[in-house]
UniProtKB/TrEMBL annotation:
This is Protein meaA. It comes from the Bacteria. The keyword Nuclease does not apply. PANTHER family: COENZYME B12-DEPENDENT MUTASE, METHYLMALONYL-COA MUTASE, MITOCHONDRIAL-RELATED. CDD domains: MM_CoA_mut_B12_BD (cd02071). Heterodimer of an alpha and a beta chain.
Length: 669
């Protein structure tokens, strides 16, 4: 929600101050990302939103086996203090509002940021911004968790307690429902699961003893949310008004916060990337505008910060010009329209209020269900939350495939003129320099060689001892930063103490289609006849190599493959190519399907193909799904991959029919 009126428009009408405008950015290296940040700020962007690469998000250095092919692909690699110095070079952090999409390693990244800011002369109490630090949703959607749920919650609450006392203007946690919607959540689920997460965190802080009772209101008012806005912008407007009401109720009645200002819902938004299409991608522009309206039209539930995806994100990495276009959308709405000159235009609408009441009632019922289970963490560990999301996503996919839910240019109005925006697909997106990974490796080796390794060992030892106890881990983390430890070393110590964890996949329950209609029946018969010809039920291995934790697509493929009669082997995210090959051998599979959305397909897929050949499974076909540019798809097909599926292949049943054809061809049937 916005602040008080504080500026005029030149015509005597008072206006609200615009929200913070950001673009989600970062890639290749700290130096290249810094140049991008500075260009965006010069164009009128009013805050930074930092994207980190997957090794940084999951706590690995560039030389870890799981980091191969992932360095610099979906964000900037940050291994140590030197990288953060370069990332924010010539950007005064005392004056900047910086959002960091970081969760498992949030404590580490804020410690790096704080030390780098202090080197610039900034005091901790001058720093403003947000660390996402919402680990619960990582087990449900993005998959960038590093530690088991209880240990992760400890890190999150330690960071909250530290910042309230030491970095008071910082938002130490950004409860993130964005990725829940990406994973299939309905508006009711998005509201309920996000608020259940907030309750779990606040209960832990309240009961942990680190924050005095009279300071608990300070904790509550530093909690922010990061939400998703879909194209159904009336429903999204109602969702945010429901969010305001529900959050106010939780703060007042569960935590006794009497200051209305402290109970205010403070949220930023990234509008929906799930609905962006590869087919006719120019339609994404109007989708993004409609989604932006859902979180800006209602003054009483208006976002405090907005970042918009680019029109071509379903194709690959947006270029600076594409990001500028998205920024200009915000600027036109804020500075050219009269939106900010009026009170809430929905107040008094019986239609809006009825929908808000419906969402509030549904969310309260779901929150009560989660609390009865023991809270959000227990609901994660039991698999309930994940299975609910997979089921909702399966229902959404079925509506699109049946045509019940129209997606313009995908399942309706498919005839199109050639688009000048994508005349040359190879130049319609930005590619990451292949040398970025080797440069990061070289930088890492130089950093380790030049630091005081004894100081690093001592700092890591102090972190290890602190982790074994119950005290706050932030001071030990700051010591590691100043000594020169790396992201992988910090995380490695905590993995030693806390252990590893594999979250439930959500695909084992009964979440597929019921009946499924003629198309599924036809493919099911095809699977059955092929199984009979090969002398056993068809077995399909769905694999997620590397660090890409966006498993929504893989889960839906696994569910649909099971629906049509395959025996499905799906072990979840974060597997090495060697582990996938070993599973293919052990399960004697008929096909391997690899899902990669992080851009690392050209490095990881050939490793799996080569591994299968070395294991004597050269006749087992490999199919690939993900965001794969045409040139890469051609290269993969030329190197032995049997089929490549991209977001335009929305018909999962048809995809399964094609997989059966691939298996039949490989077996000369």
């Amino acid at each position: 929600m916005t602040t008080e009126k504080d500026r005029g428009d030149g015509a005597g009408k008072p206006s609200d101050r615009p929200w913070v405008m950001r673009t989600y950015a970062g890639h290749s290296s700290a130096a290249e990302s810094n140049a991008l940040f500075r260009r965006n700020l010069e164009k009128g962007q009013t805050g930074l939103s930092v994207a980190f690469d997957l090794p940084t998000q999951t706590g690995y250095d560039a030389d870890h086996p799981l980091a191969k092919g992932e360095v610099g692909k979906v964000g900037v690699p940050v291994a140590h203090l030197g990288d953060v110095r370069a990332l924010f070079d010539q950007i005064p952090l005392a004056q900047m509002n910086t959002s960091m999409t970081i969760n498992a390693t949030a404590m580490w990244l804020l410690a790096l940021y704080q030390v780098a800011a202090q080197e610039q002369g900034a005091l901790p109490d001058e720093l403003t911004g947000t660390t996402q630090n919402d680990i619960v949703k990582e087990y449900l959607s993005r998959g960038t968790y590093a530690f088991p749920p209880d240990a992760s919650l400890r890190l999150a609450t330690d960071l909250i307690a530290y910042t309230v006392s030491n970095v008071p203007k910082w938002n130490p946690i950004n409860i993130c429902s964005y990725h829940l919607q990406e994973a299939g959540a309905t508006p009711v689920q998005e509201l309920a699961f996000a608020l259940s997460t907030a309750i779990a965190v606040l209960d832990r802080v309240r009961d942990g003893g680190q924050v005095p009772a009279d300071k608990f209101g300070d904790v509550v008012q530093r909690i922010s949310f990061f939400v998703n806005a879909g194209v159904r912008f009336i429903e999204e407007t109602c969702k945010m008004r429901a969010f305001v009401r529900l959050w106010d109720d939780v703060c007042l009645n569960r935590y006794g916060v009497t200051d209305a200002k402290a109970r205010r819902l403070r949220y930023g938004v990234q509008v929906n990337s799930l609905g962006l299409t590869e087919a006719q991608p120019e339609n994404n522009v109007q989708r993004i505008v409609l989604e932006m309206l859902g979180v800006t039209l209602s003054k009483n539930a208006r976002a405090r910060a907005v970042q918009l995806p680019a029109w071509n994100e379903a194709l690959g990495l947006p270029r600076p010009w594409d990001q500028q276009w998205s920024l200009r959308m915000q600027q036109v709405l804020a500075y050219e329209s009269d939106l900010l000159e009026y009170e809430d235009i929905f107040d008094g609408s019986h239609v809006i209020e009825a929908k808000v009441d419906e969402l509030v009632a549904g969310a309260r019922e779901e929150i009560d269900r989660v609390q009865a289970m023991g809270g959000a963490v227990v609901a994660v560990e039991s698999g309930y939350l994940k299975q609910a999301l997979v089921a909702s996503h399966a229902e959404r996919r079925q509506r699109i495939e049946s045509g019940e839910q129209v997606v313009v240019g995908v399942n309706k109005f498919e005839n199109t003129e050639p688009s000048p925006l994508i005349e040359n697909l190879d130049t319609a997106i930005q590619t990451v320099d292949p040398a970025a990974e080797s440069a990061a490796l070289e930088s890492l080796l130089i950093w380790r060689a030049e630091r005081d390794n004894k100081a690093v060992e001592d700092a890591l030892a102090s972190l290890r001892e602190a982790a074994k106890g119950t005290g706050n881990l932030m001071n030990a983390t700051l010591r590691c930063v100043r000594a020169g430890a790396t992201t992988g070393e910090w995380s490695g110590v905590l993995r030693e103490v806390f252990g590893e964890y594999r979250a439930p996949t959500g695909v084992s329950g009964s979440v597929g289609t019921s009946g499924g209609g003629e198309a599924i029946a036809t493919v099911r018969a095809k699977v059955a006849s092929t199984s009979a010809e090969l002398g056993g039920r068809l077995r399909f291995l769905v694999g997620k190599p590397g660090l890409d934790g966006h498993s929504n697509g893989a889960e839906q493929v696994a569910v649909r493959a099971r629906d049509v009669g395959f025996e499905v082997i799906y072990q979840g995210i974060r597997l090495t190519p060697e582990q996938i090959v070993a599973a293919a051998v052990a399960e004697d599979v008929h096909c391997v399907g690899l899902s990669i959305l992080s851009g690392s397909h050209m490095e990881l897929v050939p490793q799996v193909v080569a591994g299968l050949c070395e294991a004597g499974l050269e006749d087992v076909p490999v199919v690939v799904g993900g965001i794969v540019p045409d040139a890469d798809a051609r290269a993969l097909l030329g190197s032995g991959v049997a089929a490549v599926y991209t977001p335009k292949d929305y018909d999962l049943t048809g995809m399964m029919a094609n997989v059966v054809d691939v298996i039949r061809a490989a077996n000369h049937l």
